[in-house]
Amino acid sequence: MKTNKIIGEKIKSIREMKNISLEDMVERSGLTEDQIVRIEGNEDFPSLAPLIKIARVLGVRLGTFLDDQQELGPVICRKECAQCSDGIGFTNNAVTKHKYMAYHALSTDKSGRHMEPFMIDVMPAQGADFIFSTHEGEEFIYVIEGFIEINYGKNTYQLNEGDSIYYDSIVAHHVHTGNNMPAKILGVIYTPY
After folding, report:
1. Considering the entire predicted model, what is its pTM?
2. Can you list the domains of the chain with their CATH numbers?
3. Averaged pLDDT, 153-171
């Protein structure tokens, strides 16, 4: 996917521009050197948690990796754009590296934003080991189609079409389909800057 390649290039460019060595990035992010090299080299497309850690080390918003233009006023995303196939694929943090979520950003043109709204296609992740994610911030999920299961701390929440959940992302969590059928959700992620 074209957008995934842009993310790796932007991360490396910002890191080099800020004179942050690979070793410093490893130490400050808690990620391995191999993870960072693979992300910057567009070999891996990680879940949001590693991207948020990288953004924090670089001193930028998560959206910086997705920004295309700088629009100060309102940004409109038409239905065709929100449903386009050119999304951002993230793995489920499992060893299998199965890309089970395709994120379609709804606000890449809005500069200085504090929220990241996405239309997300969630594919079944059969046989995958769920590795929980934790990062600073908050998340809001609204189920548009299908059935979603969210592991949050020691609890599991099941959401049907029309249901929503709002939670603190610092608590270990994992979002996936609850019935091995595709689903579509609106996800809004807030990370403090």
Report:
1. 0.68
2. 2-65 (1.10.260.40), 79-190 (2.60.120.10)
3. 96
